[in-house]
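Changelog-adjacent note: as of this version, every example in the card shows the full chain rather than a window. The one below runs 121 residues end to end.
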Amino acid sequence: MAEMSVQLVAVERRLWSGTGTFVVAQTTEGEIGILPGHEPVLGQLVPGGVVKIVTTDGETITAAVHGGFLSVTATSVSILAESAELSHEIDVDSARAALSGGDREERDRAAASLRAAGHTA
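Full-length structure tokens:
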């Protein structure tokens, strides 16, 4: 099975790193799917996006990602986010509450968090 090195890093910490078989991210140019051997690309991540990583073990890592960049080579993917949170770390009740208040950026973050956690906004 073909695999690639994947890193998901936010400014404050490394969220996940390991080997994966597929990565999906939302960029300013649209959603992109990355398989091992992909052409090199650099993309800007959208604020309030979701990243999914399928590991070589078949597990899916999902994270709400708020801005940053995606760097792809034939053998690796680096997701460098301004901020991010893994799906199991998300406080769904707080995210739902943030949807009804705050500015647009807060609402976008809350919506992304709910999507990453598998809930609808």
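Structural remarks: The chain is about 15% helix and 50% strand.
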